[in-house]
Amino acid sequence: MYRxxxxxxxxxxxxxxxxxxxxFSLLRLTPGDPAAIMAGDAANAEQIERxxxxxxxxxxxxxxxxxxxxxxVRGDLGESFYFRIGVAELIRQRLEPxxxxxxxxxxxxxxxxxPLGVLAAWRFGGWFDRALMGFSVMGFSVPVFVLAYLLIWLxxxxxxxxxxxxxxxxxxxxxxxxxHLILPAITLSVIYVALIARVTxxxxxxxxxxxxxxxxRAKGLSEMRVLVRHALANAAVPIATVIGIGIAxxxxxxxxxxxxxxxxxxxxxTVDAVLARDFPTIQGVILFFSFVYVLVNxxxxxxxxxxxxxxxx
Length: 313
Known about the structure:
The protein has a domain of about 220 residues: MetI-like (MetI-like fold, Orthogonal Bundle). It is built from 14 helices and no strands. Helix 8 runs antiparallel to helix 11 and helix 11 packs antiparallel against helix 13. The longest helix has about 35 residues. It is globular, with a radius of gyration of 24 Å.
């Protein structure tokens, strides 16, 4: 078991290194000069060159990468060109809204999709199964921003149940916090529910055809116990895997959802940094998202040890 976990830990190092190289290279090779943007339209060539030298942009790309990587290892993500503060501090300030939105989205998605997938597998071929498959197709087909505007129009403008936009920190009170977060979380969870429910249905349906299910039913166990204790438990590994893979969908959705609902999180920060061509902020946010994604998938891999006894042996 410990050897399995150690190998997974080692595999994360080259992944993060490759991500760092790709992010740094893509941003440096794209057209545009951040020094010219910072200097403004009225600056001359000499002023722009001084800004480039101060930012280290006049050095070769390899030297820039070495300096930047050394700072990243020490926890220094640099200073934002646009916001004029440290990128690490900027990420810390924007972390709470994004973390709260992602956590609530995952909770809604898992609590809704797993029971739906199990019931669809149990009633395979019935109306509920067909309805869930139709919902899955719709969930994958409708863009996040379209669903967001539809929910804002219906829930906020027509019915007046929830605020249209904005964010309230949990320190300001739990009810305002939830009221401003529930609509974005539902918007973001639709595609996540469609993905997890579809995989849950397929995994549980495959498990229900195994011999141990027939044995459990022959022993007189209740159908609920057969579904949960035997079918769902043996289908847990692929379900956990797709939850980890769905984090990538969640990260992409956060950028759009936070922009639509005016939530001051990391997704909104990413959009602002891209529009301002703020290289340090873009690199810092993408690296942070990549680290979170790798960490979540590492935790999912470790969970296999507890979900599947065969891996422990």
